[in-house]
Amino acid sequence: MAHAGAVIGVDRDGKAQIARGLIRRGDMKAIDKLRKQAAPGDDNEDEDADGGAPIGSGLSKSLTRDLTLARTRAIRAGLASEGHAALALMVCMLAQQSAGVGDLVGPEISSTPRDFGDGDLLQKLKSARAMPESFAECLALDCDALIACLAILVAETVDLTHDGASARDDGRQRAGDLIAAAIDLDMATHWSAGSDFWMRTPKQYALDALPEAPGLAELGEKERTAKLKALAKLKKSAFADAVAKAFAESRWLPECLITPMREGAFAVTGQAAEAAASPQH
Length: 281
Description:
Layout: E1 3-10, E2 16-23, H1 28-38, H2 61-79, H3 83-99, H4 119-129, H5 135-140, H6 143-155, H7 167-182, H8 195-199, H9 203-209, H10 214-217, H11 221-232, H12 236-247, H13 270-277
Antiparallel strand pairs: 1-2
């Protein structure tokens, strides 16, 4: 039986080039090999027990997915009460869809409600808001009421979970950063690094983070080094408990949960500008 296929490439101008045709019998072995490599369950034996080798952040794919799931829930909850941010997000998505370009991924403004275990919260918000069911009911609402409804409806489309392992995942992280900054999200009020988190991270990741823990940050370099060496000798369970205790009440967050500073959050005053411009003596 003949098989059809396509070869997709990118030219020097960044435009996609697609060549379609029949696949030669001699190429079928190579294609079968690629299919087997892409098949689920054939992951590298070196991957950790948490489901995926540690990526650039030092965290496994499954742990990154769970962390960004927690952030997605927090962003959805925050966005549902931030009408201006929700309206801006919707306009941005529709404008990018209209132009056929854009790098914002995560919200699906075509409206496919997603449930990440926060459906009850959003449903309560809907009930409290008394969502309109017809165009006539929408027209009867003033702008403030419409924006309040819009915020909830936009929030339930947001999916910013990812494994941190691809360019698309990077895009979701950037989108999450932008939205989190827009709603002033403080993930430390939604998540904390307990023993269960440290059980799922490589020991070295925790050892690299520990100098930021309040108790260790106050120690001298020699004492801190000795403390870290002692902790490193503990078995994983005891080690995770010790690290969790060190970070208790610290509001520490892994990189993927940190909300970056919003652009324009700080303004340079005239006096500060003059001081910066004046020659240094």
